[in-house]
Amino acid sequence: MFTGIVEELGEITAVENLDDASRFRVRGPVVTDGAKHGDSIAVNGVCLTVVEHEGDEFTADVMAETLNRSSLGALAAGSRVNLERPTAVGDRLGGHIVQGHVDGTGEIVDRKPSENWEIVKISLPADLSRYVVEKGSITVDGVSLTVVDAGPDYFTISLIPTTLALTTLGIKQPGDPVNLEVDVIAKYVERMLGDRVLPASAAPASSSAAPAQEATK
After folding, report:
1. Whole-angstrom Cα distance, residue 13 to residue 57?
2. Known EC number(s) (predicted)?
3. What is the DSSP code string of 132-201?
4. Distance of CA 21 to the CA centre of its chain
5. Which of 33, 77, 83, 173 has the fewest Cβ atoms surrounding its Cβ within 10 A?
């Protein structure tokens, strides 16, 4: 489990494309300190397993499902990436519960800089919009962020100077893809409620009927 607090801005040093997978070599002096085979490291929000570790670099295999579901397939040697090691039991949860299991990708739509922060608008896949709420949590390229505004096909985030300087979100431009992981608690709640959560089409038409529950499907 991760918290979405990026530890360092690393770099892809090599990509080996296989038949149905890719092998990445990643440089990250902080996250490789004490790393060993089998450890987990989040790369742009995707939980990867350390295959080899030498010096300040590690290699990780990325299967086809991950390449298809995330933006990792667009990475090449020289790409900058957000890196985070799993949180240790007993540590402070600085961000929110992040699994490193990407739900889909969005795209930077617009950036509006101001004196002390920057508002970034990101497109949102239709099947994920029901999990994103104003002032809720979302993970973007592995960064735990608070949603400022949530629309049907977009959301906005506000980035402080530290986030802009120390993560890929400071260099991504309109048109660039980003990995999205919604709050896992929302998905569990939806699964447990099941059919008790009514779709919008099932809402009563009469104003005298009992109010329908909020649609989530």
Report:
1. 9
2. 2.5.1.9
3. --TT-EEEETTEEEEEEEE-SSEEEEEE-HHHHHHSGGGT--TT-EEEEEE-HHHHHHHHHHGGGS--GG
4. 21
5. 173
